[in-house]
Amino acid sequence: MVNGDGAHEHTEEAETKQDGTAEADGGEESNEQEVIVIQDTGFTVKIQAPGTEPFDLQVSPQEMVQEIHQVLMDREDTCHRTCFSLQLDGNVLDNFAELKSIEGLQEGSLLKVVEEPYTVREARIHVRHIRDLLKSLDPSDAYNGVDCNSLSFLSIFTDGDLGDSGKRKKKGNELEQIDCTPPEHILPGSKERPLVPLQPQNKDWKPMQCLKVLTMSGWNPPPGNRKMHGDLMYLYIVTVEERHVSVTASTRGFYLNQSTTYTFNPKPANPSFLSHSLVELLSQISPAFKKNFHCPAKEKRHPFERIATPFQVYSWTAPQVDHAMDCVRAEDAYTSRLGYEEHIPGQTRDWNEELQTTRELPRKNLPERLLRERAIFKVHSDFAAAATRGAMAVIDGNVMAINPGEETRMQMFIWNNIFFSLGFDVRDHYRELGGDAAAHAAPTNDLNGVRAYGAVDVEGLYTLGTVVVDYRGYRVTAQSIIPGILEREQEQSVIYGSIDFGKTVVSHSKYLELLEKTSRPLKVQRHNVLNEKNDSVELCSSVECKGIIGNDGRHYILDLLRTFPPDLNFLPVDGEELPLESQRQGFPRQHRHRLACLRQELIEAFVEHRYLLFMKMAALQLMQQKTQTTAATDSEENSSKPATNGPLEPGKELEESIPGLAQAKELAETLVAEDGSDPKSREVVLNACKAVGSISNTSFDIRFNPDIFSPGVRFPDDSADDVQKQKQLLKDAAAFLVSCQIPSLVKDCLDHSALPMDGATLTEALHQRGINVRYLGTVLEFVDKTPAKAQLEHFYRIGISELITRCAKHIFKTYLQGVELSALSAAVSHFLNCFLSSFPDAVAHLPPDELVSRRKSRKRRNRVPGSGDNTAWASLTPSELWKNIASEAQSYYHFTIQCESVDQVVEKYNLQKTTLLREISVKTGIQILIKEYNFDSRHKPAFTEEDILNIFPVVKHVNPKASDAFHFFQSGQAKVQQGFLKEGCELINEALNLFNNVYGPMHVEICACLRLLARLNYIMGDHPEALSNQQKAVLMSERVLGIEHPNTIQEYMHLALYCFANGQLSTALKLLYRARYLMLLVCGEDHPEMALLDSNIGLVLHGVMEYDLSLRFLENALTINTKYHGPRSLKVALSHHLVARVYESKAEFRSALQHEKEGYTIYKNQMGEAHEKTKESSEYLKYLTQQAVALQRTMNEIYKNGSNASIMPLKFTAPSMASVLEQLNIINGIIFIPLSQKDLENLKAEVQRRQQLQELGKNEEPTEDSPLELEDKIPID
After folding, report:
1. Domains in the chain and their CATH numbers?
2. Where are the transmembrane segments (predicted)?
3. Which helix (H) or strand (E) holds 317?
4. What burial letters (b/e) apply to 1031-1064, b meaning 16+ CB within 10 Å?
5. What angle do CA 320, 323, 326 make, to 5 degrees?
6. d(CA 679, CA 636)
7. Residue 1000 backbone phi and psi in degrees, to 5
8. What separation in angstroms does the CA of 8 have from each of 46, 68, 74, 95?
9. Half-sphere exposure of residue 1035: CA atoms within 13 angstroms, side-chain side
10. What are 841-873's pLDDT values in tens digits?
11. For residues 1171 and 1265, is the Cβ–Cβ distance under 8 A?
12. Residues 6 or more apart whose Cβ sits within 8 Å of residue 1257
């Protein structure tokens, strides 16, 4: 029984199965029809299981019988059954049949659950399932990073379900006080960053003990005569009551036998309690089991806390977990990891066949595409898991090499039909390109190539399943195996490309035809190269890309490490000058290897940039022609001018002289439409093409030749002109990265449209703009020279910490390679002490002598890769490590860090040691014990070897996409941004269905979908629905991205807002406090996002009348906003206003007036007197002044008349929840749109009017009060 497609949660299904009939534009009509097809109306069947009442189950015709099995295994009353069939009128249903294909199955049919006889396989599955049920609430699998379990802590802060918890109980008329005091360490200004709260301990997590031991008996396997009585295997069980029993699993079920530990007596005991399910048997012999065992479905916990994630997520911290006896785990570890595979038929999967067959599935309509994408995704996630396990087994020395005679670094391995190779330069393959450094970079480049070709998805062209695993300092590449490749020499099999970097090259017409289809999307130019006989050979890829036809007749391409063109900024070439923009930044620079490529995102951005240029130039020339029709004679000279003034200078002047891009496009479109029959327009296009470096003269088309500047590749003479053009194009692209992309990244950080919080999100921000991480030093230098440097402090700090931890990672990699397994935890803790501890003379603890064998073994040649046996690592000192980090920063990132110790670095760049610990652990896969570390002690090191719990692999793989779902999601986003909320909501619901269909219930993209849906529910006033969707988004983000990932922090903040709106104040506060704690841990207090978080906390505290606390947070938000948005920003004005309101509630009117005046001044200067914000502020000032005067009068009265003064009652107002919520919505960028039909019509008209204005190029800045601030008010994250 395959483990269904990720716990089919039926409640989920029911919620999402609305009719997918969204209104859509013409272009989406076809999609609409298809969507309705999928959502064939469901129907209900009755299910009757032995010993239970029949129940109804909603099913859909597309489902397989298999999926009903899964539902039964998840249901409370049937969860202990695994070995059964479903029967309709006495006929057994085929597990893999779709329900619609079953004759006679209709609304109201009765399906019977019939117990089937066991086989060894079924008995094993049953025992494993029972063990999973017993362990389902136990987090140890999540800590150990197995079976796609991962951690989630949301339920601790929401007290389980988000129903009514956290609402303030009414006592009579009084609202009871809720406890709002935050823990000390998250108050503004607190310097301590404790680790322990990262994983709050949940009392419910200690599951009730049901059994002491459940394990395989030593009497297995049954002897022949017992086999013939139906014995399948024996189990040994110790109940909580200390009763030791021996159980036989037989074809009929489970029963007690009379064996003991030392005597074998397989006869049934009396009574034998024969039961079809182990749970029924145990319930009869152990009262404690009966009382404590219940199905996880009964637990209050959200299903999302248990469902497996598609790829394994590892936690870098864990508590000390008891290691309990667990037969299934023990057996798994051996059967599936060591050489036992041969004995278990059907265990090894033919990965290559599975990966390629799923690609070949039909994809003509939506249901077909969904099936195909679902199959591709499933196989990929299975393959990634298998490849990771294999790679770890290889490094841990549990796999025999296929060339055991060679030295360790040259060994290759095959395990479970996957081929593994180590990232070292074997046989000097990469000697010219940078040796081991190149061999280390090649696998990731290759993976990027596989990703790119996979995304283009050309029928008939196949790539290998590829996973790159970094583990214990080694880089392992795992690949699926081309059928037949192992039997022949590579020379014979390669029929396209080159196996020696271009000395000998061959080509093949079928490959050219297939690769031609990828040429346009990947921007790869067809080109000729010379082979060793000086013949010209045509290629449509880089020379290293090899084509091999497998024994299965499929056309495979491999070695895609140069799919994208080289990066000339890091590839000095003799006699070639880079453009000035690059030279000014100190390029070209020497890099470790010669495989530095530009990223695909950069190529896309560069081509897009050139296209705009092309349009503008064509338009400019056409306009010149129009103005010159009178003087026809000049026209020829003029139209050729732009092409002559240098390769590409016209950019700058053009920008000013063009009326609007819309017109440029129009003109250019007419050009294209005229198919070049008019000589004048043909000339215009020709000139524009030449100027932007297009490879065609009649239309815009930019492609790159990836072989330019490859050592060893020679081009025929007749293409010299072409090669020259290509070289220029590469130089322009390198310059474009430095002169456009880096500044645009910095600009985005300045206006806060990019908000990295940690290393991972910073890397993502760089990559989205096509900037490789090797440019990090350059980016930081650029920030350093920016006038607004103070407003980029957060970015600079994250950049420095990323740069330092990456340098440390490079050093750690080689450090670990020399460590033998028994010293691993000592070595890792020693490295962390040198890296982070203030203790100046960290000393390594070598393993005690009794572990070192007396006879020093002679050096064996065939040692396993991960078995260094030297103790050189122990001599590392903190000062030496920091020297190495500084020199690594200089040589790799060309960035100067002048610091000799961790304390100087922390001081100089204002870093946090906890953050550095998190970054280095996540990057290298270290898992440490969760406790408070004293980094700053000068007397003892912070870490001992007991603190290092594990070392995990860091895995890179391809993420297959759900294309249709993504299109729906995007069109939904677009609709929302245009103000069509209802249609947007429907499209996004539809996208959610399709995502679920392809990815199963857990995935990053589903998380984004749920977040947007929750936001829309909220805006449209459906708070409970918003809560439910956002709760799923938080759980999913914790499970799929990690409990302290910046995205998770954001999700917590959104959930808190919806909780507050739902009246669950204490829950909202707990969630905000959690978010603040995580943010402090990840990036510290000084970050623009912290201002938003603190404004949220301050507002909620104001709402529950905790004024002093509220002020601490709001004033901190004011400080941070002032720093990052500048003192004149509207955000700062709003901050002043929020602070003023709290002072008003405290009746401190002078302070309130002071803050509101600041706010008023900003509004007046920025928006003018007439603006409503300015007016509101001025009204509020008047009101405060009146209040202050009234208070003064009262005080005077009291002074004058003593106790018998007649006091006017003062109005002290506790803020109303509505007013607090209104402010919360404003700061979180949400506006409510009154959804009467008429308003909606006006809104749509207004949006269209705005769009027309923009297209006319008259885009005047609309004043703030124009009713359409939709773009920034509903930020679609």
Report:
1. 43-116 (3.10.20.90), 148-161+181-202+1000-1083 (1.25.40.10), 351-500+509-563 (no CATH), 564-626+679-787 (no CATH), 800-846+873-948 (no CATH), 1087-1233 (1.25.40.10)
2. none
3. strand 317-318
4. bbbbbbbbbbbbbbbbbbbbbbbbbbbbbbbbeb
5. 150
6. 11
7. 80, -175
8. 18, 9, 9, 15
9. 25
10. 877 777 655 444 444 444 444 456 666 556 778
11. yes
12. 659, 660, 661, 662, 663
Instruction: State yes or no: pLDDT of 495 exceeds 80.
Output: yes
CA dist 1184 and 1180 (Å) reads 6
Q: What's the start-to-end Cα distance of the chain, in Å?
A: 40
Q: What token pair was written down for 407?
A: 């030295």
The residues facing 467 across adjacent strands are: 478, 957
- Average pLDDT in the chain: 84
Asked if 640 contacts 687 with a C-beta cutoff of 8 angstroms, the reply is yes
Q: Is the Cβ–Cβ distance between 185 and 193 less than 8 Å?
A: yes
Angstrom distance (rounded) from CA 472 to CA 926: 9
pLDDT one-digit tens code per residue, 168-227:
444 333 445 567 889 999 999 999 999 999 998 766 556 667 888 888 888 989 999 999
Percentage helix, strand, coil for the chain under 3-state DSSP, each rounded to 5:
50, 10, 40
Between CA 486 and CA 311, with CA 470 as vertex, the angle to 5 degrees is 90
Q: Which amino acid is at 791?
A: Q
What interhelical angle do 1004-1019 and 1023-1040 show, nearest 10?
160
- Asked whether the beta carbons of 705 and 525 are under 8 A apart, the reply is yes
Going by their DSSP bridges, the two strands 954-957 and 948-951 should be labelled as unpaired
CA 211 to chain centre: 38
State the pTM of this model.
0.85
Give the integer Cα–Cα distance in Å for 980 and 135.
Answer: 47
Q: How many other CB atoms sit within 10 Å of the CB of residue 1008?
A: 21
For residue 628 the two structure tokens come to 């010159």
Tokens of 707: 């072989």
Cβ atoms 842, 945 nearer than 8 A: no
Question: Shortest CA distance to 107 belongs to which of 42, 16, 13?
Answer: 42
Contact 676, 682 (CB under 8 A): yes
Residue 29, pLDDT above cutoff 70: no
d(CA 1076, CA 186): 7
pLDDT at 711 over 70: yes
